[in-house]
Amino acid sequence: MLQKKPDNTLAIDLGPEAVRVIDVKIRKGQTSINSFASQSIEAGTPETLPERHLSALASLLTTQRFKTHQCIAAMPTSLVVTRTVALDHNKPQTAEEQIRWTLQNCLPFDAKDLVFDFWPISENLPTARTWEVLVVATQASVVHRYLRGMEKMKLTCAHLDVAPCAMASLIALTAANPDAMIGTVALSENVGFFAITERQRVLFWRPFDLPSAGKGGQNIHAHLDRVGDEISKCVSHMVGSMHIDNMSELLVYGHGSEDVVVTEYLKNRFHLPVRSPSPFETLPPAGMPADVQNALQHSVATGYCTAVGLAIQQSGVIGHG
Fold first, then answer.
1. What is the DSSP letter of 15?
2. Cα–Cα distance measured from residue 321 to residue 316, given in angstroms and rounded to the nearest whole number
3. Contacts with 182 (C-beta within 8 Å, 6 or more apart), sequence order
4. Which range among 20-24, 209-213, 311-315 has the greatest average pLDDT?
């Protein structure tokens, strides 16, 4: 017998600079928001990031009256490795074995600690020798640190994802043409990523570091060329290796995304429509009290893009697999 999904769940974004939590209610496939809150994480070294995330999450659970202990969560891109891997039909190894062999030469950690997921990004034609998959890999020990920490807080985590994949369903609902190839830029104060999705499936993503843009995006203008250069590298790779060159629009989320200078720069550089929608706009009319949504500043709302994406996943739309 299939286990019924809980009506309430916490969508937890373990972001690069803060933990953001949405208390979600799902009934008959419709998503509504009970409450949302965020907590900055303390400064520290990369290897202590899980513990700093868990400390911030514990603080939120202490101060907020969330209605459930069920949760889904997204890890930051800094803790995962993503690669496009060509699988060969003529090799005797399974897809998993071919991926493991490919990754072990490029991992920044011991291959014995590897856990990964993958999905096709090209057609698996019987007449073709190879087909391509996008692989997301991380350390099993890091996943266990998060899960053990949540368990100590009495949280039951049903699904652990990564931000670009968590946003796939959100992007499809936000896009002007959901069936088209859509570019997405998500920025925090010091890191960002660029992703390509098509029909709720992630085809590619690349994380990148940024110099600190300052609180509120005051200095984001000084780093626009860096953002643009990183996107250009991705586009060049996609055109050369994946033959992808027909993005329909570019969506921008996160730090500084409400700044018209940012969106105009990207529009002029890439000659695409550029928008910075609020992730909460994807909710049904009754999904969030109007007074709350009206009072929610865009600079705050856009930071919840990953958490809202997780919430949409939980309503039954899993976008990347």
1. -
2. 13
3. 171, 172, 175, 196, 197, 198, 247, 248, 249, 250, 251
4. 20-24
CB within 8 Å of 177: residues ≥ 6 apart: 248, 249
pLDDT of residue 238: 74
- pTM: predicted TM-score of the whole model, two decimal places: 0.90
Looking at residue 216, its pLDDT comes to 46
Q: What are 247's strand-pairing partners?
A: 181
Is residue 184 a contact partner of residue 166, using CB atoms and an 8 Å limit?
no
Contact 157, 309 (CB under 8 A): no
Name every residue whose Cβ is closer than 8 Å to that of residue 251 and which is 6 or more positions away in sequence: 171, 174, 175, 182, 183, 184, 185, 274, 275, 276, 277
Query: pLDDT value at position 318?
Result: 44
- Token code pair at residue 108: 């920044």
Q: Which domains does the chain have, with CATH numbers?
A: 8-78+143-314 (3.30.420.40), 80-139 (3.30.1490.300)
Model confidence over 29-83: pLDDT tens digits?
Answer: 778 888 899 999 999 999 999 999 999 999 999 999 888 999 999 998 999 999 9
Q: What is the rounded CA–CA span in Å between residue 67 and residue 70? A: 9
**Distance of alpha carbon 165 from alpha carbon 306, whole angstroms:** 9
Q: What percent of the chain has pLDDT over 90?
A: 53
- Helices 260-270/224-237 angle, 10° precision: 40
Amino acid (one-letter) located at 237:
H
Q: Over 80: is that where the pLDDT of 166 sits?
A: yes
